[in-house]
């Protein structure tokens, strides 16, 4: 399973290039921090990796990528549903029995330090808990490629730290993870860095 970026260049009509000459192969089990100044094209590159945006030149070759997951900067959940329900849902959708899905969901909650919050409604969760829940839910859906956009942007530094602590373990199942971020500590929690500042 891999995603190969080959000589990518992108610019919007009548604008200069955001990045150029970007060649890199993303592999299973790695968590890539996607960094660069504001406006350098991080979100645009996530869209290119997902296949939503066609690069101006170069190619992205997906090998063995079946499902792509996203986690956005603002957590979205169902207010009255519990944390456990949010993670069990993708497992039920994969055909697991409810009892198995809940057991399995509990292990994902544990991985993101949320065991204590399993039976809390989404609306009762703090920003950091809700963001960790989004990561747990995304991983439970077993994507081959997970794209995460600024997971700590809305969080204070202490809460952000609780999210960053879980990032290292996020690719344990072999998922390829790309995290767009401005946060130095998020960057340090990842295994690799793609710095768009190097491709201008
Ligand atoms: N559809 C579009 N048409 C024209 N310009 C666009 C479009 N989408 C984004 N841009 C511009 O391209 C540049 C890169 O945007 P992008 O959101 O990818 O940057 P970013 O690195 O994610 O920024 P930030 O760190 O501020 O979130 C910005 O100047 C943005 O205004």
TrEMBL record:
<dbReference type="InterPro" id="IPR027417">
    <property type="entry name" value="P-loop_NTPase"/>
</dbReference>
<keyword id="KW-0067">ATP-binding</keyword>
<dbReference type="Pfam" id="PF00005">
    <property type="entry name" value="ABC_tran"/>
</dbReference>
<protein>
    <submittedName>
        <fullName>ABC transporter</fullName>
    </submittedName>
</protein>
<dbReference type="InterPro" id="IPR050166">
    <property type="entry name" value="ABC_transporter_ATP-bind"/>
</dbReference>
<dbReference type="GO" id="GO:0016887">
    <property type="term" value="F:ATP hydrolysis activity"/>
</dbReference>
<keyword id="KW-0547">Nucleotide-binding</keyword>
<dbReference type="GO" id="GO:0005524">
    <property type="term" value="F:ATP binding"/>
</dbReference>
<dbReference type="InterPro" id="IPR017871">
    <property type="entry name" value="ABC_transporter-like_CS"/>
</dbReference>
<dbReference type="InterPro" id="IPR003593">
    <property type="entry name" value="AAA+_ATPase"/>
</dbReference>
<keyword id="KW-0813">Transport</keyword>
<feature type="domain" description="ABC transporter">
    <location>
        <begin position="3"/>
        <end position="197"/>
    </location>
</feature>
<dbReference type="InterPro" id="IPR003439">
    <property type="entry name" value="ABC_transporter-like_ATP-bd"/>
</dbReference>
